[in-house]
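From the shared-data thread, chain only:
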Amino acid sequence: MSGHSKWSSIKHKKGAADAKRGRVFTKLIREITVFAKNGGGNPDTNPSLRTAITRANEANMPKDNIAKAIKKGTGELPGVTYESCIFEGYGSGGVAILVETLTDNKNRSSAEIRNIFSKKGGNMAGAGSVAWIFTSKGYILVDKTLISEDELFSVAVDAGAEDIKSSDKNYEVFTEPKNFEAVKAALETKGIKSVSSELTKIPNSTLKVTGNDAKGLLSLIEILEDHDDVQKVYANFDIPDEVLEELAQEM
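Structure, as tokens:
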């Protein structure tokens, strides 16, 4: 499992996701609004919106909140106009960090993100500096107790999966973004519910980070993820599992 995915999984198990449910809802509402504006309010014909609604349902967001977010995007209800902005930089140990935001004020977001990098031992970089390190993929995490690797391989690859990796407790299924929905649907048809699933960015290479660099890096990522305008943060770190577990207890 990639370093950032491991960290997210550990935080979820520790209950960090539940503690920040309100902030998660805010980010999902913003995402749904933008996708509805860009591609229409019908999830059957708007895959990006459908994926966002699925994530909102998995987070137990009230259906009324989802409906209002869609209507704000389509203009049926008044709402704020957001634009997508990407910020790039480096954290402790030279780790590449890519920050995706949805903001109603790009200048404010830029200044605040830059300040976070600076205070946590990182630095912002120019456009394109680290984006090339990451590739867009569909990512599906499956509990090993639900299916054998051979059966998963057969179902997932037939539906368009690109690669499958095995870890201690889970399988990781990778797809091209265009095949993400089809692979996920094929697994669900077989009764295989994913632990998590998302359109994400996977690093083409990773950097090993330990000690104080690891702690400082994860602190930077945590603060970035907590920022209201930030939707997703990607980083190419590789931190040993035992260190991630230990740091999760401290943070």
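The beta strands are 83-90, 96-103, 123-125, 134-143, 161-166, 170-175, 196-203, 207-208, 230-235, 237-238.
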